[in-house]
């Protein structure tokens, strides 16, 4: 689940600026921008909280042999974590054709979901079938091929234009952008730093690593090669790695709560964004097994943000670097089991992309 809105509005010249969602184009655009990519074979639900947009949930569409009741219960459980939810709009992303006289795709799923949500006083407000090149209303009685709207028209929506202006983009798939830049191999320098760390006591080694890591998290410059080699070595030591990961959210809490994303206060997401930037830079300086701790740390950040597909990709890349890297193995199993970070399940703490940390975004016909 990804945070989409319910932010503090931006005040400009004493006037509160709001972005309104009034058309299907706006909603479908929001789904893509919030997820960061166009999903495939997915059910995407945008939660409405009275006048505002809440979180966005993406789940894979159920296969024919799936347990329908269990599937719907899981979706409802995620939606109802927003205790103030009053409505939902949805998109079914699938290239499967919907021809005249055909039944609606996944009609049994959506009827069951609507019934279960109504028990929680949550109404399904609208929905669309979204194919590879066009979309159509889910609630029309007979699908009309001529009534399908080209997806290209979404580019002209007011909301899409504003989000693109803020720097947001929609990728064609969920893949995590792992750099493919030319690397500088620092393995020899990393090895020398590992020897120095082994000569220290654990508290001294951890304190030294935290000082460097904290300085970089509060800076805007990228680390030098000497600093990168030192940090790559730090992340190879389990106790140091865990402490550096726990320092990322910028909160005073137990290390366990921080790593598992279950603190009472939300993390400082801008600081998390900065940590991701630093880790990506470290990855371009890593070689072989040195990359596994960095890729695993990137995966944990993706998990904190509710991006299970991207977290899985990071963990898989980590295991390609070091097939025996335990944290990547365990974390990937957690993602495969469908376990979400508590931060991602609470609208007050869920990750909000930088592009959506500005004006409040309001719901269809409610502005």
TrEMBL record:
Ranges: TPR repeats: 292-325
Entry-linked InterPro entries: DUF4192 (IPR025447), TPR_rpt (IPR019734)
UniProt entry keywords in alphabetical sequence: TPR repeat
Pfam families: DUF4192
PROSITE patterns: TPR
Protein name in the entry: DUF4192 domain-containing protein
Source organism of the structure: Arthrobacter psychrolactophilus
Lineage: Bacteria, Bacillati, Actinomycetota, Actinomycetes, Micrococcales
């Amino acid at each position: 689940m990804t945070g989409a809105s319910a932010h503090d509005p931006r005040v400009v010249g004493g006037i509160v600026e709001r972005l309104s969602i009034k058309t299907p184009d706006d909603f479908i655009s929001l789904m893509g921008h919030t997820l960061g990519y166009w999903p495939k074979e997915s059910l995407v639900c945008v939660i409405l909280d009275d006048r505002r947009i809440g979180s966005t949930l993406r789940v894979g569409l159920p296969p024919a042999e799936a347990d329908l009741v269990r599937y719907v219960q899981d979706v409802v459980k995620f939606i109802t974590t927003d205790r103030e939810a009053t409505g939902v709009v949805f998109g079914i992303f699938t290239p499967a054709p919907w021809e005249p006289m055909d039944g609606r795709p996944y009609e049994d799923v959506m009827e069951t979901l609507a019934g279960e949500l109504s028990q929680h006083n949550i109404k399904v407000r609208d929905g669309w079938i979204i194919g590879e090149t066009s979309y159509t209303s889910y609630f029309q009685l007979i699908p009309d091929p001529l009534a399908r709207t080209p997806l290209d028209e979404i580019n002209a929506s007011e909301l899409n234009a504003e989000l693109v202006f803020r720097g947001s983009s929609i990728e064609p798939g969920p893949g995590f952008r792992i750099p493919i830049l030319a690397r500088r191999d620092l393995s020899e320098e990393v090895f020398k730093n590992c020897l120095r760390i082994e000569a220290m006591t654990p508290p001294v080694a951890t304190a030294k690593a935290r000082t460097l890591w904290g300085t970089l998290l509060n800076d805007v410059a990228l680390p030098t090669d000497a600093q990168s080699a030192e940090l790559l070595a730090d992340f190879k030591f389990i106790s140091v790695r865990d402490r550096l990961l726990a320092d990322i959210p910028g909160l005073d809490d137990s290390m366990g709560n921080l790593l598992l994303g279950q603190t009472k206060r939300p993390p400082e997401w801008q600081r998390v964004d900065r940590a991701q930037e630093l880790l990506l830079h470290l990855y371009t300086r890593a070689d072989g097994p040195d990359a596994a701790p960095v890729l695993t740390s990137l995966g944990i950040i993706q998990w904190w943000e509710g991006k299970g597909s991207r977290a899985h990709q990071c963990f898989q890349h980590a295991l390609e670097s070091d097939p025996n890297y335990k944290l990547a193995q365990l974390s990937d199993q957690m993602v495969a089991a469908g376990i979400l970070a508590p931060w991602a399940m609470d609208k007050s703490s869920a990750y909000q992309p930088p592009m959506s940390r500005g004006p409040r975004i309001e719901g269809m016909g409610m502005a």
